[in-house]
Amino acid sequence: METTYVTKAKIKPIIINSVLLISVLFVLSNKAYAQNNDSVTIASLESQIRIRAAEIEKKMIGWREDIHQHPELGDAEMRTSKIVADQLNHLGMEVTTGVARTGVIGILKGGKPGATIALRADMDALPVKEPEGLSFASKAMGTMRGQQVNVMHACGHDTHTAMLMAAAEVLSGMKQDIPGTIMFIFQPAEEGSSIVDPTTGDIWGAQLILKEGWFKKVKPEAVFALHVMVGPSGAIFFKSGATTAGSENFTLKVSGRGGHGGMPWSTIDPVPTAALIVSGLQTTVSRKADLTKSPAVVTVATLQAGSNPNVIPDSVFMSGTIRSYDKDFQNKLDSDVTLTAEKIAESQGGIAKITITPNYPATINDSKLADQMSPVLKRVSNNVSESPLQGASEDFSFYAKEIPGLFIFLGITPKDQDPATAAPNHNPHFFVDETALITGIRAMASMTINYLVSAANTKKNK
Ligand SMILES: [Zn+2]
Ligand SMILES: [Zn+2]
Q1: How much distance in Å is there from the Cα of 166 to the middle of ligand 1?
Q2: Start and end of every Peptidase M20 dimerisation domain (predicted)?
């Protein structure tokens, strides 16, 4: 009895264990099969992207040079958006123009059901005068809030537009194989609007697209964008988490009481008060900010006082920017800047009035998306590295606050130049090596395909 009992007790776990082992093996082999199947699909789709991107490269460079030669300021991208809309219509997409004033949105439906993702390119240029040299250099003029200005694509948004137009054609050509929907956002006014006065609280660009409800309508579950940047040609760099700075602008008026330059004791001179404030503001970052939380910058960029050597003015005006990578940190910085300015003015018998206007929040890249796309981008470029924090800001940050976003950089410095000394974005000598741009088409298309295929497979395996 005892023996029988012992045997039975031993057999039972063996049977259970075997069943468990077989089930586990079955699930594992099924998963391996599915993964194998994914990688076969993805490898063949990526090789299609490689071929199609090479085929369209020349046409894309033509678009880029044409857009470069005819740059338009934020919210005035009439010609550019017409070129984009014509291309998206030609590809048979569902196209809406006049998005956020001058933007274009195209919807590409894949041949199979699946998730929706968004790809964004910005189209606007800057009030910068382009030097002569390039055969397609800009001679364009534009109107910046009533003022005539020279216009140049000094931030490379011409390349973003051309690369995304090309990626749209690449992906359209493969749409039967695409599980899901792709939303192409050709956004106006990333650098700011040429018609809206920012102090009125009116909005533009990414913020306006979101306010118009485009994410609610189309429901993308992730968003990607790419920015050209000084760096080895064809290199891709990006980072998880905080990427571009959150920025705010401030204006500051120091009021005193004007009078004769020879009798300052009978005045409240706002000029030395303003000088003390400029110095005092330097201590907000260097002495008060916890740099383990976020790097930060407080810059006074303009200073206007008086008009005559023997007249002490009533007031002094200054303006500048406050930047960091963390919202709470930025709030603390704002109150330190305000307190410093107000108390210094008070100590001198004057009054400081500061107005801080939020510009763009910090761009926070989704860590899961960054991890997921890292091997994808390594198949696109053989030079992929972690990006340092960028001091510039980007209105892509608004999209990335709504849904997981990934903002990557593409190096465009020609091989015979040192990226460390090459003219940066916004400089009139900013130069793009066009051979890098094919990498941008492939990066955008490959991230899209990988995201959608893996989302479809995850759903299937559930
Ligand atoms: Zn820019
Ligand atoms: Zn830019």
Answers
A1: 22
A2: 246-334
* CA separation for the pair 375, 417 (Å, rounded): 28
Helix, strand, or coil (residue 425): coil
Instruction: Report the b/e string of 341-366 with b at 16+ CB within 10 A.
Output: bbebbeebebbbebebeebbbbbbbb
Q: Which residue has the tokens 């894949």?
A: 110
- Ligand number with the minimum distance to the CA of 228: 2
Q: How far is the CA of 400 from the centre of ligand 1 (A)?
A: 18
Q: Where are the domains of the chain?
A: 40-245+362-461, 246-358
Lookup result for tokens 């130069």 = 431
Quote the ligand 2 centre to 226 CA distance (angstroms). Answer: 10
Taking domain 246-358, whether its CATH number is 3.40.50.2300 is answered by no
Structure tokens of 199?
């102090």
Q: How far is the CA of 409 from the centre of ligand 2 (A)?
A: 11
CATH assignment of 40-245+362-461, given 2.40.50.690, 3.40.630.10, 1.20.1530.20, 3.30.360.10? Answer: 3.40.630.10
Helix (H) or strand (E) holding 103: strand 103-109
Residue 360 annotated in active site: yes
Q: Residues 325, 360, 399, 451: which is the catalytic one?
A: 360
Q: How far separated are the first and last CA of the chain, in Å rounded?
A: 47
pLDDT in tens, the chain (462 residues): 333 333 444 444 444 455 555 554 544 444 444 445 566 689 999 999 999 999 999 999 999 999 999 999 999 999 999 999 999 999 999 999 999 999 999 999 999 999 999 999 999 999 999 999 999 999 999 999 999 999 999 999 999 999 999 999 999 999 999 999 999 999 999 999 999 987 788 999 999 999 999 999 999 999 999 999 999 999 999 999 999 999 999 999 999 999 999 999 999 999 999 999 999 999 999 998 888 888 999 999 999 999 999 999 999 999 999 999 999 999 999 999 999 999 999 999 999 999 999 999 999 999 999 999 999 999 999 999 999 999 999 999 999 999 999 999 999 999 999 999 999 999 999 999 999 999 999 999 999 999 999 999 998 887
Among the bound ligands, the one closest to the CA of 160: 2
